[in-house]
Design goal:
Blueprint lengths: L4 H14 L1 H27 L8 H33 L16 H20 L3 H9 L3 H7 L4 H11 L4 H20 L3 H22 L5
């Protein structure tokens, strides 16, 4: 189904206006929790528990990175499920943010493949990497919304994104500008903008794939 950036952003901001507590509060909390594993090395260093010059510190860095990826995958599934429910104007409770356990591993595998594929593409004069990342742009939403496997999500996203890559790129650019504007408003605006952008992205997914229902 055809879509415009203004249409999907209107859906996103309308959802935040309708359920501000769940969306603003929920996205803030789940993102805060997702950041915690990555802060472990810094906290231990500042507390004087371990020195940054020791091998132990670098082991902790690696463990922290892996923990961040795992928690990020878990949080990503929950956020996308909430965003999809909001875009579909469905009822949902706060617990949906923490429902990512069943699809955490597929999300983690998909994230790694997308990042590696994008990195490889970037090494090939950048443009192929951008095209690849846009073609796989719906992978996370497919993982969160369906029971498809990692490779199937890559294939389905690539097929669905035919004819939509430029529009998705423009959507990301506009979303980036909105995020910057939110930061300029003493960070407060960002708490509203980020949930709206994720819900808007969920609406893009709905229109491109035709998955309007649950």
């Amino acid at each position: 189904m055809p879509w415009t950036i203004s249409e999907v952003l209107n859906v996103g901001f309308a959802a935040v206006r309708k359920r501000p507590l769940e969306l603003i509060g929920g996205f803030f909390l789940i993102n805060l929790l997702a950041q915690l594993p990555g802060q472990l090395p810094l906290v231990l260093s500042l507390a004087g528990v371990v020195s940054e010059t020791t091998p132990v510190f670098w082991v902790i860095q690696v463990v922290s990175l892996l923990g961040s990826m795992i928690v990020g995958a878990y949080a990503g599934v929950g956020q996308l499920r909430v965003a999809l429910a909001a875009a579909r104007d469905e009822e949902f409770d706060f617990g949906l943010f923490f429902s990512g356990g069943d699809r955490m591993l597929p999300m983690l595998g998909a994230m790694m493949l997308v990042y590696l594929g994008g990195l490889l593409g970037m090494l090939l004069l950048i443009i192929p990497g951008i095209i690849l990342l846009l073609g796989w742009g719906l992978v996370g939403a497919l993982i969160a919304d369906t029971d498809v496997g990692v490779m199937e999500s890559l294939r389905e996203s690539w097929e669905a994104m035919q004819g939509h890559k430029v529009s998705l790129l423009l959507f990301f650019l506009v979303s980036g500008l909105l995020s910057i504007a939110g930061l300029c408003a003493c960070y407060v605006g960002l708490f509203v903008v980020l949930p709206a952008i994720v819900v808007a992205f969920a609406e893009v997914y709905r229109r491109v794939t035709g998955r309007y229902g649950a």
